[in-house]
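User: Hi! Is it possible to get a structure for several chains at once, not just one? Here's what I have:
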Amino acid sequence: MKCKEETGIDAYGGYYKRKQQRTYDYNNKTGKWAPAKKGTGDTQEILFGQRRISDTFRINSGAPDYIEGRKLADVAADLESGKLHPDQFEVKYFIDPNSGKKVAECNRTLAVLSMAGLKPTKTKEIIPSQEVLNRLDPSLLENKPIKYRGETFNMPGRAIPVTVGPNNLEILDIVRLP
Amino acid sequence: MIKMKVVPVKVPWMISPSHDFASFIGHENREVSVQVMCGYNTKHYDKVIANLELKYGGDIPDEEYNKAGSVIIEIKFTPICLFNIYGKMDGYERYDFSIFDPYYYGGLSIGDEWNKTDICPNPGFYEVVESNLKETFGFISPRVKHWVLRGHDSCIDVLAYSFEWKEVEW
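Assistant: Yes, the chains can be modeled jointly so their relative placement is included. Here is the combined structure:
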């Protein structure tokens, strides 16, 4: 099979070439592109980009104490009460090469803000890793959308199921973008 | 830090990118079993769905539909020389996965190759051929191999002689 790299187009619709061009335009102040404003200056919403999430933040991740190992519901309650602020939850995202939409890299962070009825106030574009891209590859069975009570949760999307755990797909909750 | 190169272990499944490890259990005879949710290729999935459609007449219950094609795989390593599970940390990576770049940035398709060969090109289960972890712990015998498993939140390093795997009930 002829590698698409030989034609100058990467497998993700030119994502990396466009990013290279944007970086060049920004660094050389060509006026053709400027970075999107962080937080509320950027109107395109960030979508969920994973089949499901657990109800707990990762432990032993180096994340702040107010996140690490905590239940999403508890953190959302702290956001709602004002004990925590959305600025403390930076949402990293990437541009999905298939849809062109912004997709969250850490879906639990986006979920906890959504559970508190909040939109991200701090965002940062990243280049997606192989593992992150795996979550959205439509040819992988793992990414077959979950169905629940007549609704299908496509990816990327505005809602994401929260399931019990690593060997159980029972749905605990559906988190939706506000 | 020099990253260690990995090669994929030839298995027909892929560790789920959105699930972490379900369990790991040590046994007295120096074996460790790891259980994790995995998926097979779409060829396998189509057969599972076809069977479910026969069974339910097209109206497959959500629970059956969502589980279709997914399995819990148990991998048993024996005898264990080292078993290390650790959380993934942003910005820290000790392995080199560039062998898989053509599937993400070069036009090759994991799904297509997987359906063709029934071996997953990037299963989340790897062997480290030139391991400095072995050296760190004083294992110089070529019988000792270094394997890596990648879950959604955690990674596992294993030094052992061999492994076997099977599907388990879930």
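The longest helix of chain A spans residues 15-27. Helices of chain A lie at 15-27, 72-81, 107-115, 130-134.

User: Great, thank you!
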